[in-house]
Amino acid sequence: MNPAERFNRDCDCTLTDLDDLRHRLNLESTHRHLFSAAPVFVTLDHARDMQRTVEAVEAVSRLPGYRRAVLARAPAIAYESPAALGVFMGFDFHLSPQGPRLIEINTNAGGAFLNIAAREAQISCCEGTAPFISSQSAAHELEDAILAMFAQEWRASRGDQPLRCVAIVDENPQQQYLFPEFQLAQRLFERRGIRAHIVDPGELSILEGRLVAKGEPIDLVYNRLTDFYFEDPRHRALRSAYETRLAVVTPHPHAHAVYANKHNLALLSDAAELTRLEAEPATIAQLLRAVPGTKSVTGPGEPWWSNRKSWFFKPGSGFGSRGSYRGDKLTRRVFSEVMSGDYVAQELTPPSERWRTTTNGREAYKVDIRCYAFAGRVQLMAARLYQGQTTNFRTAGGGFAPVYTVAEA
Question: Is 330 helix (H, G, I), strand (E, B) or coil?
């Protein structure tokens, strides 16, 4: 057992002052399970391995053959590659005995602003925890990196033109569970002299050749929609602005098609396909270690049913664990929906565990590690603690948790 595993089993330290954090974010009466007080530990080797996996995915994503393959299944709006890369790529890992395993990739991954805000509420509860907190980047340093990321997206698209106004866009944003994060993003932009509006896509319009919201021209859209290809009629103004480059939109349909469609994981876990696409041998080796075997769910259903306990089934264009099922939990009715839908099956890779002492005694929480990345570099790691089949922010004692790296010695 390495030191990180031992800490995750035995450490009962509380390193996030939840009362202070909830007060800072005005969440005293809501979002009781958005944050966990418990930290999660990973080895330095595992942290480095996750970075290598992000780099390997980035390397494959640039291969012409890979792009042709993934864009062939995407709608036309995703074909053209804009200058903007796409902010807040989310690489989600489970820590297995064989090392970190990449279970999925997401565009517009939520939680980064919340986890940055949580840095200011981290406390040292004993002498042994002080070095972990002092080793972390401060909140203001992470905020600088986030602003630099948006600035890079803007400069790549508009050169030296000033960035004046940003729209943070999602469906009914005030009703979204992560609405507090939108408010944090808005305040960060405005502290740096950039006006920011939180808007529903229905509030956007095209006026005199500009994308407009709340009567103001929008330069850049921070896109949080899960309509990844702007297919809903209510999103027509945003779609038009993206297609005609009236505003910089990030992340965007091209990024989703290249990175986040779950069918891409079948390519990233297939040695023969990666070789055919002319990926470097070291890149292939890294991906085969990191990405669980993934297949598109096609063909006769009975072999899939017979072997269902070995698989985790996910919708190809899904998000947030919606419509995802462990094979051993499937009923015949749900299985028939999987077989008739657009699904992939991924080799079952159980999450690692974080043990805590609670009023109910010793309890185990499942752990997902999310790496927020941009341009192939991990900017921030955070964990999500939960009980049950998928992450849900409904588990007492669960939620977002800080991640600390531990040396092997």
Answer: coil
Tell me how far apart the alpha carbons of residues 71 and 76 are, in angstroms, rounded to a whole number.
8
Decide if 147 contacts 158 (C-beta within 8 A): no
pLDDT score, position 351: 94
Q: Look up residue 308 and give its two tokens.
A: 């269902």
Cα 101 to chain centroid distance, Å, stands at: 15
Domains in the chain: boundaries: 3-263+351-406
Q: What is the reported pLDDT for 409? A: 61
pTM of the model: 0.94
User: 94: closest CA among 16, 42, 137?
Assistant: 42
In three-state secondary structure terms, 163 is coil
Q: How far is the first Cα of the chain from the last one, in angstroms, to the nearest whole number?
A: 12
395, 382 in Cβ contact below 8 A?
no
Q: What are phi and psi of 135, to 5 degrees?
A: -80, -10
The beta-strand segments (E) located in 174-259 are: 195-199, 204-207, 210-213, 216-217, 220-223, 248-250
List C-alpha distances in Å: 390 to 23, 33, 83, 212, 398: 28, 14, 35, 38, 12
Tens of pLDDT, residue by residue over 167-181, are 999 999 999 999 999
DSSP 194: -
* 122 secondary structure, DSSP code: B
Q: What are phi and psi of 63, to 5 degrees?
A: -75, 130
Residue 125's pLDDT is 79
377 with 88: CB under 8 angstroms? no
